[in-house]
Design goal:
Length: 346
């Protein structure tokens, strides 16, 4: 995975690797009961050095910030708190980006960087090339531009299911399994993306739990075994094999049952292991980390395929998984969250 700058990484399913300084670190606390929601930080990377150049000005007009709000969800604070300290520089792999909530932006950036269970922050030597307090330089310029910027941002087109907070995305087109299974027969339905919360009842191992894929960059095509090598029909050449997950799950909620297929990135989030690391050609048994996902209740985002809509079969493709909050019934009142102001108004 090649490191990207904070201005290059985009919201969506992709996992990114970045090099940045964690300049501010704070606990986001729910006012009232003092419950900790997340461990938050401001990340800065290198481009801030071009701050007053024409290039940087153009970048800012396009809102390609060099600072980004980073969030470690409550569920992972224990894991990451000892690994991230204020002021240090990290190369952090396997982070995901979501659009920032309009009202609560901590920095002039429309994206939020999220830590996942598979995220690996690695502290690196501070070569002092990444500024420590670049937010101070922004204030005067940004304050005068703030209104225009908000208007500009509201015009940006983001796919509907990627809008809002992680919580909003978990709730996007939420259905019960019974409702979703019926949607397959609804010819007036135009939506392709839905979320359901259901429990993993069993793993169907009839076709195994992984496939041999091409290991090149973003190519994940299944390889063909030739006489003494593997061949990728997408890259049209020999390829090195890499095992990727393809796990068939039997799931249910109180209304109905269905099956779904969990592919590599999403499966890795649930098992906390890469498929490649668990290949054991001598063993016929399903690896323990996969067995352990049975019984878990997850929020699945499904993307309906042509296959679903023509065969009417409730055998879904998982496009994302979310981990339900412990107290899934307590909706967080955003108005009560402490807002940390980082801009230096003087
Ligand atoms: Zn390939």
């Amino acid at each position: 995975m090649v490191s990207k700058t904070l201005s290059e990484i985009r919201p969506g399913k992709d996992l990114w690797k970045i090099k940045a300084r964690a300049t501010r670190l704070w606990d986001a606390i729910l006012l009232g009961n003092g419950e900790q929601l997340s461990l938050d930080m401001i990340l800065i990377d290198l481009i801030a050095f071009f701050l007053f150049s024409v290039y940087k000005l153009l970048m800012m007009m396009n809102n390609q910030g060099t600072m980004m709000h980073g969030v470690i969800n409550k569920a992972y604070i224990e894991k990451f708190k000892p690994l991230v300290e204020e002021g240090s520089v990290y190369i952090t792999a396997n982070v995901r980006v979501t659009p920032a909530a309009q009202k609560y932006r901590q920095v002039e950036n429309d994206k939020v960087l999220n830590f996942l269970p598979i995220t690996t922050p690695k502290k690196v030597k501070d070569t002092e090339d990444i500024p420590k307090y670049s937010f101070k330089f922004f204030s005067t310029y940004m304050l005068s531009k703030r209104v225009d910027m908000d208007m500009y941002l509201s015009e940006i087109h983001i796919e509907k299911h990627l809008k809002g907070t992680l919580e909003d995305q978990m709730q996007y087109n939420r259905r019960t399994l019974e409702q979703l299974n019926l949607i397959l027969f609804d010819t007036s339905n135009q939506d392709k993306i839905f979320t359901v919360q259901s429990t993993i009842d069993a793993i169907n191992t009839r076709f195994g739990w992984y496939y041999i894929s091409c290991n090149r960059g973003d190519c994940n095509k299944q390889l063909e075994k030739k006489f003494d090598h593997y061949y990728c029909s997408k890259c049209d050449k020999r390829a090195e094999p890499k095992a990727r997950y393809k796990i068939k799950l039997e799931i249910s909620d109180p209304t109905a049952a269905a099956t779904c297929v969990l592919f590599d990135q999403e499966a890795q989030m649930v098992t906390n292991e890469s498929a490649d690391s668990m290949i054991d050609h001598d063993s016929k048994e399903l690896p323990k980390p996969i067995q352990k996902i049975c019984g878990q209740s997850l929020i699945f985002q499904f993307r309906l395929t042509e296959y679903n809509l023509t065969s009417f079969r409730p055998d879904y493709t998982v496009s994302r998984v979310f981990f339900p909050k412990e107290k899934s019934n307590s909706r967080i009142d955003m108005e009560n969250i402490i807002k940390v102001t980082l801009l230096d108004y003087n």
